[in-house]
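FIELD: query
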Amino acid sequence: MHLWSGEVQSRIDGVMPLAARLRPRCIDEIVGQTHLVGEEGLLRKIAASDTLGSLIFWGPPGTGKTTLAEVMASESGRPLTAANAATIGVKQIREILDASRRRIAEGGPASVLFLDEIHRFTRSQQDVLLGDVERGVISLMGATTENPYYTVNDALLSRATVLQLRKLTTDDIAVLLDRALAQDEQLSGLILEPEARSVLADRCEGDARRALAALELAASLAEEGTIDHNLAAQTIGARGRRFDRQGDQHYDLASAFIKCIRASDADAAIHWLAVLLEAGEDPRFICRRLAILASEDVGLAAPQAMQLAASAWAIVERIGMPEAELTLAELVLYLATCPKSNSAAKAIWSARAAVRELPGVDVPLHLRSAQTRGADELGYGKDYIYAHDDPAAAAAMNNINPESSDPPPTYYTPIDMGFESTIKSRLEPQDPS
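FIELD: result
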C-alpha cells in the first residue's frame, strides 16, 4: 500500500518535473545540509548504523526535507510510505501499522512512515500511532516549515529527533543547476549563460525546487538552446520576500527590529523596518511593538518617547500605508537615537515579584483614608505628613512596611542618562543647610 502526496504523486502520474528527476538517491548525492550529512553529520552516522528511530525535518521550502526522508529510508533498507499529515486517516494509519508488524514478524525491517506537514497531525491520528512508534513497530519521519517546538505536539516531539535544515546557499543552488545540465537527458545540449545561472541561484532564495522549476521552464522557452539573463530573470521572477506572519519568521523579524532599536543602531533599525514593511507586516503590529519599547527600553531617559509612540500609532491608524511608512520611520529613528533606560521596567518587575511573595497586603495606618467612618478611633491617617507642609519629612516616611524593623525596599534606581539624570538628582538626599 502506498499513500503519496505532492511531488511523489507526480512520479506515479508520470509527470516528472526536473526537481523530481534529479532527486538524490543516496546520502552522497545530497547538496547542502553539510551539518547533517557531512563526515561528522548526524544523519550520516545514523545511516551507517542499524538504528533509524524517528526524525522530524524542519526547514524552509526546497531545502531537501522529503529527499532526506527518502534517502534515510533507502540507506536503512526500509520501505517508505509517504502521506500528508492533514489528509491521512486513522484507518490508513492502522493499515500501515499492520503491514509493518507483518513485515517484522516475517523477519524484515520496520516500515518508515513519512508525513509531510507534520504540524497538522491531529490528536486522534497520534493516539493510533504513538504507541507503535515508541515500540519501534514503525519509524516516523516528518517534514515541516514551521517550528515544531510550537506546532508539533509534545507527545510526538518526545519520540523523535528534530533536525533543522538550513537554507541552501547560492553555491549549493549553482551545483544543482550544473548537475541538471550534466545529467538530465531532457536538458542535453542546453546552454545556460553564466549571468543566467547567477540569476537563478540568487533569486530562488535557497529553494532548490524553485530554481530547478525555473530552469526547466526556461529550457522549454529557450531559443537556439540558450538561456540568457533575461529569460532566466523572467522564469525565476522577483525575490518572493518569503514571510510567514503566523510562524517563526514573524517573531524573528520583530525580535531583530526591536533589538536594533534598543542597541541604538539607527541604520539597522530602519533596515529591519523596511524588511517588515516589504513583507507586508501589519503597521499596527509595528506600532504596538514600538509603544512597548518606548516604555520598556527608553523609559524615563526620554519620557516623551511614549507620547510620540502614541501619536505615531494614531497617525498610522488614520492615514494607513504607504504614507504611514514616513511616520514609522521617524518614530523608529527617534527611538533608536534616544537615550535608553529600563529602570522603570525593572522597578515594576521587581516590585511585582516582591508582592507575589507577600503572605498578604495591609495598607499602613497612616496611608489609609481618614474619611472612613471611625477613622480617628482606628488611627487611620494618623502620623501622615502632608508633603506640601514638610517635603523632607514626607519623603522620610516609610510607606511600605512601617511596622517592620527592616527598611522599605528600593525598587527604582535611576541612571545618569537623559532626563533620568534630572530625576536622579531630585531623589538624592538634600543638604538641609
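FIELD: remark
The chain has a mean pLDDT of 86.
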